[in-house]
């Protein structure tokens, strides 16, 4: 009888300790990466407008990768979509734009089909994202993150800095020059406290 109770107790302990480790492997969390830091080679899932629906960030062989965080409700994002398309076509394999949204694929795909009905998009889109949003937390959209081909973060910008001149500057000498970096304003903090930290 004691042997049976011991076996049951051991089995219960094994179950107790194995459940949390399984839960952790399903929900992975990433720490935010700042300018100058390198991001892990994460796997992008729910990729649309690309040759596969799942790929690693390192599979994009461009010298410069620009992550374009957007949403279907963001009018500024939509106003800049033609600009990113033109830049993607101009720079071909040297620069790779990737659009990133938290929104579900079912909502995004019909929206994109309508948006690009007459001129197909050349930019891959990641939907249902959580990993890239964890790596690059931000408040305001659009939000652009510039990465070199090693995964190093070289800039975070608004659409204003998204110019051929700034891209040429980076491609010619692997540096962004004096490009203005984006600073998100957190509405829960006073403007004075934000400016003091800069």
From TrEMBL:
GO function terms (MF aspect): isomerase activity; oxidoreductase activity
Q: Which domain of life is it from?
A: Bacteria
Supply the SUPFAM superfamilies for this chain.
Thioredoxin-like
User: GO:BP terms for this protein?
Assistant: cytochrome complex assembly
The subcellular location is: Cell envelope
Q: Which UniProt keywords apply?
A: Cytochrome c-type biogenesis, Disulfide bond, Isomerase, Redox-active center, Signal
One GO CC term, this protein: cell envelope
The record's listing under InterPro entries reads: Redoxin, Thioredoxin-like_sf, Thioredoxin_domain, Thioredoxin_ResA/DsbE_sf
- Where does the signal sequence lie? 1-23
The keyword Cell inner membrane is annotated on this UniProt entry? no
Pfam families reported in the protein's UniProt record: Redoxin
Tell me the ranges covered by the Thioredoxin domain, including all copies: 33-172
Protein's name according to its UniProt entry: Thiol-disulfide isomerase/thioredoxin
What is the originating organism of this protein? Pedobacter cryoconitis
């Amino acid at each position: 009888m004691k042997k049976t109770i011991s076996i049951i107790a051991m089995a219960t302990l094994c179950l107790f300790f194995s459940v949390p480790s399984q839960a952790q492997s399903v929900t992975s969390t990433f720490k935010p990466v700042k300018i100058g830091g390198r991001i892990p080679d994460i796997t992008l899932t729910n990729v649309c407008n690309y040759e596969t629906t799942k790929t690693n960030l390192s599979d994009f062989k461009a010298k410069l990768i620009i992550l374009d965080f957007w949403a279907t409700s963001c009018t500024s994002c939509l106003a800049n979509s033609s600009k990113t398309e033109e830049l993607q076509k101009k720079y071909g394999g040297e620069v790779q734009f990737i659009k990133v949204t938290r929104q579900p694929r079912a909502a995004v795909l019909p929206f994109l089909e309508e948006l690009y009905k007459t001129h197909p998009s050349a930019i891959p889109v990641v939907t249902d994202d959580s990993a890239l949003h964890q790596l690059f937390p931000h408040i305001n959209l659009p939000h652009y993150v510039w990465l070199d081909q090693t995964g190093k973060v070289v800039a975070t910008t608004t659409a204003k800095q998204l110019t051929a001149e700034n891209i040429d500057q980076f491609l010619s000498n692997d540096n962004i020059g004096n490009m203005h970096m984006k600073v998100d304003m957190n509405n829960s903090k006073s403007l004075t406290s934000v400016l003091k930290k800069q």
